[in-house]
Amino acid sequence: MTDYDVLRVFCAPNGGYGNELGVVREGSVLPDRDERQAFAGKLGFSETVFVDDPERGVIDIYTPTLRLPFAGHPCVGTAWLLDVPELVTPAGPVGARLDGEFSWIEARAEWAPPRTLRQYASAAEVDDLPVPPKGEWIYAWAWEDEPAGRVRARAFPGRDDGIDEDEATGAAAILLTDLLGRALNITQGAGSQILTAPQPYGWVEIGGRVVLEREPERQPHFTR
């Protein structure tokens, strides 16, 4: 049986909302990639992380249908859970730090999978968007307060894995920050909060609140 934690990442100031994340702390129980992919599909979260070395922060990230070399909300959540200064991903090393209620990571925009960043004229337009047809990963956004760097966003993965809308997506926020070249305070989905800031030499820092939703002993188990 495989134990896993469930976190919510990029929560609102009151601790609500956030994007759920599954974390298998003992990745050695599912060493095979096909097993990990099947398990991530069973859990059905937008991403599931397998920890291969908790002290060094070595992790492996999966959506319900594919493996990712890097993803934002899994790294923010896992860094908080493991309390390590760095994560090691297939894309490269990800710096990590805790600052009060926020968990932060530092990554490069080129590590993020391709996204269509689609700007709208107002936050109300973004709020009213229907789920678009499958096939294109769309990050819909609009300024709520441009001088203050406040953004309204929604994310539509466009995949056939049962996730029509992603509540909070770190990689897309990194791409938007890199495009605009400024710090952002993003409200995404139903009410999640993502903070970002461009850093020197092509790096982007992204942070948010993390809540431990369920621990392994409180959860059902899936057999291998």
UniProtKB/TrEMBL annotation:
Pfam families: PhzC-PhzF. This is PhzF family phenazine biosynthesis protein. It comes from the Bacteria.
